[in-house]
Amino acid sequence: MPYNGAAAVVAEYRKALDGKVIIDITNPISPDATGLVTPAGSSAAQEIARGAPVGAHVVKAFNTLFGPVLARGGRLDAFIAADDPEAKARVSTFIESLGLRPFDVGGLHMAQTLESLGLMLIGLAKNGAGTFDIALKVDVG
């Protein structure tokens, strides 16, 4: 199945997105949740960036945080990936304003890893944990 998801929406609103920070929260998984539907070697965030105007900056964030755990509250870890340092800083400030802890995992190429992590968490929620009230925590000692 070819991926066109959010990239089609970005193309439709291309002019309005110029100069904006686009936060990609998606987990581009197949309907049966057995894999990702993005092109090999790419991610939804990278596909969105390809369709976005040059002045827009894409940040991958929030895709590993599920609704039930967000509703419960607490100091959760939010992983972010982006190429633009200013966009990362703005999204990190936003994340902190929500009471969450931002963790920079690197450039936008790391969105592929975050999307795979999202898929793994979905599998864990469905098969191992039995709930979407789960989150990953970074323990920095």
Automatic annotation (TrEMBL):
Superkingdom of source: Bacteria
InterPro entries: NAD(P)-bd_dom_sf (IPR036291), STEAP_metalloreductase (IPR051267)
Residues that span the membrane, as ranges: none
Protein name: Dinucleotide-binding enzyme
Species this protein is from: Paraburkholderia dioscoreae
